[in-house]
Design a protein that fits this description.
Elements lengths: L1 E4 L3 E3 L4 E3 L7 E3 L13 E4 L1 H11 L3 E4 L6 E3 L2 E7 L7 E7 L2 E5 L21 E5 L12 H17 L3 E5 L5 H11 L4 E3 L1 H12 L7 E3 L9 E4 L7 H4 L4 E6 L8 H5 L3 E3 L7 H11 L3 E5 L3 H9 L3 E4 L7 E2 L15
The structure holds zinc ion (ZN).
Zinc ion binds next to loops.
Length: 334
């Protein structure tokens, strides 16, 4: 098995791209965050991701594949399975010539209320995201994170101020809706978040105590908005408020300043350093390629005895597995 990495990953001989960031004829979309979901001619995705993708990018020819339903696609056996990142987010297992390759997309190991629990499959080759691949990024237990969030909301409301919670509109925001709504807090929710929450509802995830945002109806409510509205009139015009940002980068020393927030809370949809390492141990691959992370994580994996390297755009394809020299015209798609 060989792969090509050039603004996306392509399994040689399958014509299937994985999370390509340029338009392709046929591309697996792991989830609908904008850095992974670009406009393609045809996509392969879970039903949930297909719906989010459609919301964000419009109608597209789609091959839907449910989790854990192996299928032959373009000359390889392909299976999608949950990554635990956001609702419908998927990893992909590609089996070809007796080699098992897993591409994780974004993932996390810890459970949450709005995404499927992650599965980990043994594989020969692992291509993994490694965003928080430094020992500095070990998140506290989820219980503590939720306590910090609810503590922030309670304290702010008790001071007759408006708690403003900043959370990415797909995934993080719905998790915040579910956590706070289930605990009886009333939320005033920005329309961009509600629009995507309607897809969650379609797939059986219900929200309590969540209402459409009206500027005159904030009393006693938590305002939930995407972070890009931090410096908007919508937020600036609220006379008495305290702002919290939900992000894994909350562990950075200067995070409050970075996000213009009174509080930063490390609720993340990504694996932390410990989870990344656990994943690798469970998948026990012979070869690892990392994406979206620090080079130090590669050194960490090597110190643990793994054959690891960072996936970089290269002029020639990566050869995965010793016996797998390919006869394919390597750049026939470019
Ligand atoms: Zn993502």
């Amino acid at each position: 098995m060989e792969i090509e990495y050039d603004g996306g990953i392509r399994i040689q001989g399958t014509d299937l791209w994985l999370d390509a960031n340029r338009k392709k004829d046929f591309c697996f979309v792991s989830h609908a965050h904008i850095d992974h979901a670009k406009r393609h001619k045809k996509i392969l995705a879970t039903p949930q991701t297909a719906k989010f993708y459609q919301h964000r990018l419009g109608e597209t020819e789609t091959r839907i594949l449910e989790f854990n339903q192996p299928k032959r696609i373009k000359g390889a056996k392909v299976e999608l399975f949950p990554s635990g990142h956001i609702l419908g987010a998927s990893q992909i297992l590609v089996e070809k010539g007796g080699v098992r390759m897993v591409y994780t997309g974004d993932f996390k190991l810890r459970g949450c209320l709005t995404a499927e629990r992650i599965q980990i499959k043994k594989c020969d080759i692992l291509i993994m995201e490694s965003t928080f691949g430094l020992p500095d990024y070990v998140f506290p237990p989820r219980k503590e994170i939720i306590k910090k969030l609810t503590g922030f909301v309670k304290k702010t409301l008790s001071q007759n101020q408006t708690p403003v919670v900043l959370a990415y509109s797909l995934g993080k925001a719905q998790e915040a809706m579910k956590i706070l709504g289930n605990l009886g807090f009333k939320l005033s929710v920005h329309s961009s978040i509600l629009k995507l929450a309607s897809v969650y509802q379609r797939f059986g995830i219900k929200f309590k105590n969540c209402y459409r945002y009206y500027s005159r109806d904030l009393k006693g409510k938590v305002l939930l908005t995407p972070p890009w509205l931090r410096n908007s009139k919508m937020i600036n015009n609220i006379p008495k408020k305290r702002i919290a940002m939900l992000t894994g980068w909350a562990l950075d020393p200067g995070a409050k300043g970075t996000y213009g927030a009174d509080e930063v809370i490390p609720l993340s949809d990504h694996a932390d350093f410990w989870e990344l390492t656990q994943y690798v141990k469970k998948a026990s691959p012979q070869k690892i390629y990392t994406l979206h992370g620090f080079t130090e994580f590669v050194s960490h994996l090597r110190a643990l005895g793994y054959d690891a390297e960072r996936l970089e755009p290269k002029a020639k394809p990566y050869k995965l597995g010793k016996e797998l020299l390919s006869n394919y015209d390597l750049f026939s798609n470019l």
